[in-house]
Amino acid sequence: MTEKKRTTIILFSGDYDKAMAAYIIANGAAAYDHEVTIFHTFWGLNALRKDEPVALKKGFLEKMFAKMMPRGSDKMGLSNMNFAGMGPKMIKHVMKKHNAMSLPNLIELAQEQEIKLIACTMTMDLLGLQQEELMDGIEYAGVAAYLAEAEDGNVNLFI
């Protein structure tokens, strides 16, 4: 029996289009029977944030980060041509017109395909994010866990 191929992706970016690319690649790799892991760190954690606010006790800086960062994958901006929020609206309109899946749908598909979604615990601590603020069904780990996954990876990407 042949060993399954592994694909690992570090999602560092908080840009909608870059997160879309990461999830399209991840879902494609899973469809080709790869074991897939997406390690979300720094601004990439925004893709895992719940849309609704969660009442938690936080310090001043943690509250500021929470207010400045987009809440949920659908609120992320574009890397180019953001145009004060008009860019994401335009790209979502074009995607809908062409029956392309939205980022929230791609994340849902990733969970259905058992893609391992990992939130970086060190970054969560730095940004003051707590598990209650992130979606259900994800894992929490540090860089050592990612490295263990990537060590046997056939494809390792940084987005």
Query: Quick one: overall form?
Result: globular
Q: How many β-strands, per DSSP?
A: 5
Low-confidence stretches: none
Helices, by number, come to 6
Rg from C-alpha positions? 16 Å
Structural class: alpha/beta
Taking the sheet with the most strands, its summary is: 5 strands, parallel
Mean pLDDT: 89
Which range does the strand content fall in?
15-25%
Helix-strand topology string: EHEHHHEHEHE
Measured as a percent range, the helix fraction is 25-40%
Q: Which strand order spans the largest sheet, edge to edge or round the barrel?
A: 4-3-2-1-5
Report, as a whole number of angstroms, the end-to-end distance.
Answer: 32 Å
Can you summarize this structure?
The protein is α/β, with parallel strands linked by helices and 159 residues long. 40% of the residues lie in helices and 15% in strands.
List keywords for this structure.
159 residues, alpha/beta, 6 helices, 40% helix
List the helices and strands and how they pair.
Layout: E1 6-11, H1 16-31, E2 35-40, H2 60-68, H3 86-97, H4 103-112, E3 116-120, H5 121-127, E4 139-141, H6 143-151, E5 155-158
Parallel strand pairs: 1-2, 1-5, 2-3, 3-4
Helix pairs in contact: 1-4
